[in-house]
Amino acid sequence: MRHPAGPVSDDAPRTLTPNSAVMVAISMVAALGAFAWPLVVPPGADVQQQTLAPFVLAAILPLILAVTVSEVVNRTMDVKALALLGVLTAVGAVVRALGAGTAGIQGMFFVLVIAGRVFGPGFGLVLGSTTLLTSALLTAGVGAWLPYQMLASGLFAAGAGMLPRLRGWAEIAMLAVFGFVGSFAFGWLMDFAFWPLAAGQGGELSFDPDASIRHNLHTFALFNLATSMSFNLGRAITTTVLVVLVGRPLLVILRRAARKAWFVEPPAP
Question: Which of 38, 41, 113, 162 is the most buried (most CB within 10 A)?
Fold first, then answer.
C-alpha cells in the first residue's frame, strides 16, 4: 500500500495531504484564536470561565473530528492507526495521572513530542486533545480549563510533527529543545486563557482592557514569571530529560509501528 504523499523513509517527518493540511491549519488557527481573543476583545463583566469554556469545547470537538476523518479519508490513517491512537492516548493519560499533584513533573509531554514527531501534525493534534480529555475523565479533572488544555496540548504535539528532518542525536537535541520551549509555551497559553478574566484581582500584574496589546503582553510576562515559573520549569526539565534518555528507542519503536499502520510506504521490492 502506497503512502498518499509518496515514498517516505522511516526517519522522515510525516507529511500531510492537501486536504488534511487545510484542516490542521484551520484547527490550529482556531485554537490560537481561543487563547488570543482578550487581545482584541476586552472581557466584559459577564464573561466567565464557566460560560466561555462550553463554547470553546463545542468549537474544538468538530475540528478534531474533521481532522481525524480527513486523515482516514485520505488514507493517511487506517484502522490500525486509529487503534494506535487509542493506545497512545491511554498511555499519555496514565502517565499524566502518575504525575498529578507533583509540581511540574508531567511525563505526558514526552509522549506527545515523540508521537507527534513520528506520526505528523494531524495525528499529533488529535492525540494531544484526546490524551487530555481521557486524563481528565480518569482523574475527575473536568472543568472550565479542560478545553484549553486540549487545545494547548494538541498544538504542542502538532508542533513536534512540523519540525524539520534530522537524524541521530541531532534529532534528539532538536526534540529536547522543542520539548523545553514547548513545555513553557503550554504553561503560557494556559495562564493567558484565564488571566484576562481575573482583571483587577492581581494588582499591578492584572490585565488592563484599556491598555495596549504590548503593555498587556509585558504585564502578563511578569505575572507568569511570578506565579508559574516553577511549574513551567519542572515540566520543561522533565520533558527534556525523558527525550534525551528514552527518546531514541521510543522513536525506533513507534516508527516500526508506523510502517505497519500505513504511515510509511513499505520498501520497494
Answer: 113
Architecture of the domain made up of 18-260:
Orthogonal Bundle (1.10)
Kindly state the DSSP code that residue 99 receives in the 8-state scheme: T
CA triple 33-37-39, angle to 5 deg: 125
pTM to 2 decimal places: 0.80
Q: Which residues contact 160 (CB under 8 A, 6 or more apart)?
A: 112, 113, 114, 115, 116, 117, 124, 175, 178, 182
Distance of CA 249 to the CA centre of its chain: 22
Q: What is the pLDDT of residue 186?
A: 92
Looking at the chain, how many residues does it have?
Answer: 269
* For the chain, percent of residues with pLDDT exceeding 90: 23
Task: Give tens-digit pLDDT for 115-144.
Answer: 999 988 888 888 998 999 898 888 767 777
Among residues 5, 9, 24, which one has the least CA distance to residue 159? 24
Q: Residue 225 corresponds to which cell in the numbers above?
A: 514569571
Q: Where would I find the H helices in the chain? A: 18-36, 49-73, 79-98, 108-119, 121-139, 146-161, 168-194, 213-260
Q: Give helix 146-161 / helix 121-139 axis angle, nearest 10°.
A: 150
Q: What is the pLDDT of residues 68-127, one digit of tens each?
A: 776 666 656 667 778 888 899 999 988 888 765 566 678 889 999 999 999 888 888 889
**Dist. CA 52–CA 225, nearest whole Å:** 26
- Please tell me the distance from the alpha carbon of residue 188 to that of residue 136, in angstroms, as a whole number: 20
